[in-house]
Amino acid sequence: MQSFTISEDIGQHFNDLRMKRAYRYLIVALSEDGTQAVLQAAGARTAPFSEFKAAMPDNQPRYAIYDLEYKTADGRNESKLVFIMYSPDNCT
Known about the structure:
There is one protein chain. By secondary structure, the protein is an alpha+beta fold. It is about 20% helix and about 40% strand. Strands 1-3-2-4-5 form a 5-stranded mixed β-sheet. A hairpin with a 5-residue loop joins β4 (about 60-70) and β5 (about 75-85). The protein is globular and about 45 Å long. The mean pLDDT is about 95.
């Protein structure tokens, strides 16, 4: 299994998403040589899910973190961070 490094800006953006709720989502791609994970996109907090879907390529793999907000059955507001390993069927 090949290993890769994670750029420092990903860690900072993740902390901003998690602690400050500054973003709705982060999309991470591997560099061309496969040695480093780099931040491809950071969605504004007000970004709709459709924007997140449109930002994901249809032929390349990505890692993503999405801050999902929802209401529970008893009416409470909740949010969960969803980690996604995205690999479309027609991946190159």
